[in-house]
Design a protein that fits this description.
There is one protein chain. The chain is mainly α. It folds into two domains: about 100 residues, no CATH class; about 70 residues, no CATH class. It contains eleven helices and three strands. The relative contact order is 0.08.
Length: about 200
């Protein structure tokens, strides 16, 4: 962490550019994305480059192909005449920035819905009723502090006694106690630390 902080003094957004795995994924998506910022010959005021939050030299690009481009549209917004000089293109056809936003949001939430429907990704934690009806138990690592001890046991498919044992909670603590409140009855007890420790159970 110290090395990253020091290098960040000399290299802009060092972690994001060179170490962040999410940044690498987004960079690949940017490269293959059909959405591109395209620029026509203009008055060379340089505002697009000066205002780019990713420090891309937009003014020297006909098509912004940098993996660092996040399609934020800042370069378009600051242009004196964006309708003439710069804009979003989709397969070389100019599109309204609002359409880009709508499609992006649609793809993001649509992907989450598909992943959850196919069981490849769990977006939300099921309710106690769903767990009891469907028998799809969660892991200790997915527990919420707002659950009671009893709800935690039911959610993970454990007996109440076994849950007390796994979570190292004394049985003197009432079963209707919120997991995040166990620390009020047990000295030095930290629900989040315990949850992380027993995450896969």
């Amino acid at each position: 962490m110290i090395a990253v902080l020091l290098l960040s003094l000399f290299y802009d957004r060092f972690f994001c550019k060179y170490l962040c795995p999410a940044g690498a994924l987004y960079g690949i998506i940017t490269k293959i994305s059909p959405f591109k910022v395209k620029r026509n010959p203009c008055i060379d005021c340089g505002k697009c480059t000066k205002n780019c939050p990713m420090n891309i030299d937009v003014a020297k690009s006909t098509t912004v192909k940098s993996a660092e481009c996040i399609d934020c549209g800042t370069c378009i917004n600051v242009c004196p005449d964006s309708k003439k000089y710069i804009g979003f293109n989709f397969f070389n056809k100019r599109v309204n920035p609002l359409i880009v936003i709508i499609i992006t949001v649609g793809v993001f939430f649509g992907s989450l819905m598909i992943l959850e429907a196919t069981g490849l990704y769990q977006v939300s934690i099921p309710s106690i009723q769903q767990i009891e009806q469907e028998g799809k138990f969660i892991k200790i690592g997915d527990l919420r502090g707002s659950m009671t001890i009893e709800e935690g046991a039911k959610s993970t498919g454990k007996t109440l006694d076994k849950f007390y044992e796994i979570m190292e909670i004394p049985k003197t603590v009432a079963k209707d106690t919120l997991l995040k409140s166990v620390s009020a009855f047990v000295t030095d007890y930290d629900f989040h630390v315990m949850k992380a420790k027993k995450a896969d159970q």
